[in-house]
Write a structure and sequence with these properties.
mainly alpha, two-stranded antiparallel ribbon, 2 strands
Length: 77
């Protein structure tokens, strides 16, 4: 993720395929991620037409990226 000149966030592909990493996650992490996905589905249902799918795992309730560099990590971007 990269900050833009206007203060937003954007994603960029890795520079090379060699830069990509795959990691194995313990079963406990996978269970937590599955529960989180279920919570996001409920958020999606609640948000209705305001839902903005972007593919991030951890987002605001409207699926906007969470900006961890801002004073409030839940501030929408």
């Amino acid at each position: 993720m990269l900050r833009t000149n206007t203060g937003g966030l954007t994603t960029l592909p890795t520079k090379t395929r060699a830069s990509e990493r795959h990691i194995a996650l313990p079963a406990r992490c996978l269970q937590s991620l599955k529960r989180h996905r279920e919570e996001q589905q409920r958020d999606r249902d609640t948000a209705g037409v305001e839902w903005q799918h972007n593919g991030y795992v951890f987002t605001t309730p409207q699926e906007r990226a969470i900006d961890l560099t801002s004073p409030s990590p839940m501030s929408p971007t």
